Amino acid sequence: MKKIQILIAASMLVFGLAASLGQTTYAHTKVNKSIPADGATVAAGLSEIELHFAGKMRLTVLKITNSGSGEAVSPKSSLPPKFVSQVNIAVPPLVPGDYNVAWIGVGSDGHVMKGEFKFTVAGKP
Ligand SMILES: [Cu+2]
What pLDDT, on the 0 to 100 scale, is given for residue 22? Predict the structure, then answer.
């Protein structure tokens, strides 16, 4: 009798875990849109980068790097210290070249998420 109860409890635990894992996979917050978009080519002088999140997120790291020179771009505005669904970051007018934007953030479900995207500023580097 006791063995059966333990078996039922164990199988319920496994099903519960599988169900919650499935849910959290879909609840993860991510960047679902950015301006410039991933892979986009934009005109020289771009001075703002915009990130849209699938859910509310508190961005903790945003690293913008010129892929050619390896130099980091210093944003002119700081990251909002709260959960938001969109972040606009002012940057010094970007010179032509390839850029990589890497981000790390905490979703409202407490999960730490990260990702990156690339874009090109048109013109002669
Ligand atoms: Cu999540």
Answer: 46
State in Å: Cα 19 to ligand 1 middle: 14
Assigned domain for 1 exists: no
Distance 53 CA to ligand 1 centre (A): 12
Give just the sign of the alpha carbon dihedral 64, 33, 81, 61.
negative
Report CA(59)–ligand 1 centroid distance (Å).
Answer: 14
Report residue 59 as tokens: 């961005």
Task: Dump pLDDT digits (tens) for 41-74.
Answer: 999 989 999 999 988 999 999 999 999 999 999 9
% of residues, the chain, pLDDT over 70: 78
- The pTM score is 0.76
| 117 contacts 31 by C-beta, under 8 angstroms | yes
Q: Per the structure, how many domains does the chain have?
A: 1
